[in-house]
Amino acid sequence: MHPAKSVIIFTTVSGAGYGLVFILILGQLIGFYDASLMVEIISHCIAFAMVSIGLLSSTFHLGHPERAWRALSQWRSSWLSREGICSLTTFVVWLFYGLYRFIFNEGSNSTSIQLIMGSLTILMAVSTVFTTSMIYRSLKAVQSWYNVYVPPLYLLFSLTSGLMLLNVILHLSQSPSAEINKLALVTLIATLLLKRGYWRFIEKAPRRSTIESATGLGKFGKVSALESPHSHDNYLMAEMGFQVARKHSKKLKQIFLLLFSFSILTLGLVTLDMMSTLMAVIGLITMALAIVVERWLFFAEARHDQALYYGQ
Asked: Torsion over CA of 193, 196, 198 and 199, rounded to 10 degrees?
């Protein structure tokens, strides 16, 4: 599939934003970190900006962005529609949580509303990332997406990004949390292991569709295309038939593994209290670069079954 920049920005930036708001609210509700009210407000503003930028960038991939609102009506059958509804609902409950956390924050009634709205915001943030993953997970014609690895990978990348962001924010505000740092280290390792498992799966899993099964001529023996269906490039091949050379794919995977492993190393140094703030920042930057590489590969390596008709 063609790795559109707008979709890469959407899935990485908004995913990190949802991960940040998830861990911000969960950490506040269970006392997982200790930060001033101003640091919390700034952190929520960062998360809001990232989620908004990500969602807005996704509309640039549409042929008619002005019609994006129409997708909300197809929630019964479309994961894209469910994603839009979940994202909008997240904004609403998040707003009420913010009001009672930072403005109307006095009295037992405010505490109860914070708990309810905070829990709902957490639920909707997770639901939004999950529905985003299911947009790809539900496509049977793309074997590298139609598998059980995709949703947990999206959720783990989101959570890890949020933890890394909060870890840096807490370090820069002189209120670091050892628990947040350790949890970020654990999720980094878990994400790396799961991603390697995903790559092994798509490399070794037999193709569900072949040109024989696609044409229905397999009973007559091996099938090969005499000519391409089109004499010139077309939209389908540009969007669905994008191919990345195997040597480039292997090199990019090595870059991802190197960057992600280095990010794990930096968090290990933070745990040992060695130049902790600098290491936390470097870890965040290397992780962000690694995720961009991973997300580009996620789309570039996806092979739509219709490419079989073009001899791929």
From this structure: 180
